[in-house]
Amino acid sequence: MEEKKVAVVGAGLVGSLLAVLLAKKGMQVDVFERRPDLRKAKAIGGRSINLALSNRGFKALSLAGFDQEIRDISIPMYGRKMHDLKGNLTYQAYGKDNEAIYSVSRGQLNQKLMNLADDFENVKYRFDHACEDIDLPSNKITFANGESKEKNHYSYDQIFGTDGAFSSVRGVLQKTPMFNYSQDYLPHGYKELNFPANPDGTHCMDKNCLHIWPRGEFMMIALPNLDGSFTVTLFFPMKGEVSFESIDTEEKVVDFFNSTFADAVPHMPTLVDDYFSNPTSTLVTIRCSPWNYEDKVMLLGDASHAIVPFYGQGMNSGLEDCSVFFEMYDEHKDDVNALFEAFSKQRVPDGNAIADLALYNYIEMRDLAGDKDFLLRKKIERKFSDMYPDNWMPLYSQVTFSHIRYSEALAAGNRQRKIMDEVMGMNNIHENWDDQKVIDKILSLIK
Amino acid sequence: MEEKKVAVVGAGLVGSLLAVLLAKKGMQVDVFERRPDLRKAKAIGGRSINLALSNRGFKALSLAGFDQEIRDISIPMYGRKMHDLKGNLTYQAYGKDNEAIYSVSRGQLNQKLMNLADDFENVKYRFDHACEDIDLPSNKITFANGESKEKNHYSYDQIFGTDGAFSSVRGVLQKTPMFNYSQDYLPHGYKELNFPANPDGTHCMDKNCLHIWPRGEFMMIALPNLDGSFTVTLFFPMKGEVSFESIDTEEKVVDFFNSTFADAVPHMPTLVDDYFSNPTSTLVTIRCSPWNYEDKVMLLGDASHAIVPFYGQGMNSGLEDCSVFFEMYDEHKDDVNALFEAFSKQRVPDGNAIADLALYNYIEMRDLAGDKDFLLRKKIERKFSDMYPDNWMPLYSQVTFSHIRYSEALAAGNRQRKIMDEVMGMNNIHENWDDQKVIDKILSLIK
């Protein structure tokens, strides 16, 4: 592929990193983005969105040599802190020692990646270019120009679709035979809220953890920003008795937050304004197969596997697409068709696995994170894993701190869950959880 | 809705029947079709396609008063006849007495329905109109004219999308929030072949049954036509060792058919020509939810639930959409939003159920229809059902000869399968199947 002229459609996180990695192989890379250059545009309110970078993401960033630069604009979170109805806190470490996930602003990260990509002579950004169609036989893309809607046409050897959950590139593939596709919405949506910084610029809560208010049918979370504020997200039913639809007046918002998130309310001076002016967004899971069209088009990131945000793996899995692609690149670089097919074949089951894990984790976060049995289960797992690290890596660690394939992590997690179901069924487990016989039981089941 | 001006997009079987039923309620109905009028066009080779009409389809047709006219252009098939590798035949009745499914040509049926619809003053067909987009706030449809590609715009109170598996109307809904959608291709495709009529115009095999050549990983079927010919369909893997991809020379086709469908070859004078000139088509399952967009758009037929053809229910389920819609019509006719929501809510699970049943029946037809255990299972079921008709209606009969909701039939079928699994596990069941203790066993399990 070295000599090829390629297009990357979508200048988000995955698109910008991919452009750099392709450029480093010597390709001529045009990156198209339907929006204006976000480095020149004003921030769009209510959708700042914080992300949690973890090991998979950093590994991909390090391929481009960017990992330290990105670490510098992020805040480590070593565990989750659960806030119950009365404001009592429970802490749970994510991993061991210094294992952490890193809170970073999507906008800042994207700008940084664009600036770094701009340093490559063979990467060229074209903003205000909305992909309208692709003629697959000739691999010619039709773009509509932002304001004038004038059409431009460009042809490429290969086209990479990194244009997100509502990908136009994928829309073209969807019309080809044998392309499997699904989009599934959760009945819940989300809305961004905000805890501003203290007057002295410090954070109003512990900044080195992810805060969760688990409430059964819904939840709120908060992630720290560099400027002392927290980005807060309410995940909530779209319709029904307690929902975005039903909580529709100032009074109801105030009552609801006072009774449900009492300890958070003092941190939210603009709650009512935020609630009514910020948009309500939906939560969709996108799957497709294959991710490629012959040797012409390849989908990566949300374009091929958009997932719900509850495992913090949306961005990480998209960035990992890039590192996995380049791990396979050398073996197949003279046969793009083989490269694309091999990548799709390997990566589709991993995309499906992390989609399943993310859906499951929603239940865990909102429902179980405040539950006694759940916390004990985690404690026993942690103890056993500390004693026998080669025999047991907790599922969360496999997903977040390892590079084990998602599909293998999912399978291992299912085996572990069955074992822990048996352990939790032992007599008086809440009293006896620290006994040797609990460890022996796990050892007997693991074999 | 009585006074409304409505559009039906797609003049196929479901669209034409729906147009008549809406017209009978007094609505002004414009029916749009992207193809030319098929009554004036030449038949397209290799895609004639035979369908099997059964009770659900006839019930919907009878709502319009058309059932006898359609019965007159169809041929009853009372059972399936399996052809094994040596040409031995096994017959299995579909139901009791005169229960049959009716072979009919899609083209002839569609023409007939169009002619009948044309008799209604308030139904107007517009051919060569391809739906390009719908502006949902105004319910304005943009059409591209067949040859000139000139755009026309029309607005309607309600729009019914009956434009098939690759529906443009559904494509518009797919972009709205909270619209769940999936398209799944089987790894198998199909190709149409042909047994011509005998020189005297008679059929070369028994015309009153559906012929099947079950071969495990694939199968061939034949349905009778009025002119003495059979429409034959080969269902076959798209790729792999034995597949459309691998059987790619005249010699391979002849060898393959001689060794696999020996008793059919003498009936196929144009086999090689047909194999290479007829297209290879794909088999897709489409699901979505909801089927409506507010009180503006409603999807019916393949547009909302395209299924694989192995239960003979694709057309029947689409026509049944119409009868179910008008069963709910009177209750809600003054509140279109309530009507559309109630219909979607009731019908989505039934569309999913018949999709599942059709996928399962592919395994049954190609794999089990030639299997001794399978045939015995059916025989025992039939005997029990004859003795206790109120306690046991075979799944096939529920789907094909009853009006029980598909979702209920699927659930009942699952219960029956579990019972029959136990019965087939009885000692020496192949020798003792006719004993009273087998009947007693079923009676004990059914309670």
| CATH topology category name of the largest domain in chain A | FAD/NAD(P)-binding domain
Overall mean pLDDT of chain A stands at 94
Specify the helix fraction band of chain A. Answer: 25-40%
Oligomer: homodimer
Going across the biggest sheet of chain A, name each strand in turn.
6-5-14-15-16-13-17
Assign the structural class of chain A, choosing from mainly alpha, mainly beta, alpha/beta, alpha+beta, or little secondary structure: alpha/beta
The top-level CATH class of the largest domain in chain A is: Alpha Beta
CATH architecture of the largest domain in chain A: 3-Layer(bba) Sandwich
Largest sheet of chain A: 7 strands, mixed
- State which percent range the strand residues of chain A make up: 15-25%
Shape of chain A: globular
Largest interchain contact: A-B, 14 and 14 residues
In CATH, the homologous superfamily of the largest domain in chain A goes by the name FAD/NAD(P)-binding domain
Number of domains of chain A: 3
Radius of gyration of chain A: 23 Å
EC number (chains A, B): 1.14.13.9
Function (chains A, B): Catalyzes the hydroxylation of L-kynurenine (L-Kyn) to form 3-hydroxy-L-kynurenine (L-3OHKyn). Required for synthesis of quinolinic acid.
Pfam families (chains A, B): FAD_binding_3 (PF01494)
Family (chains A, B): Belongs to the aromatic-ring hydroxylase family. KMO subfamily.
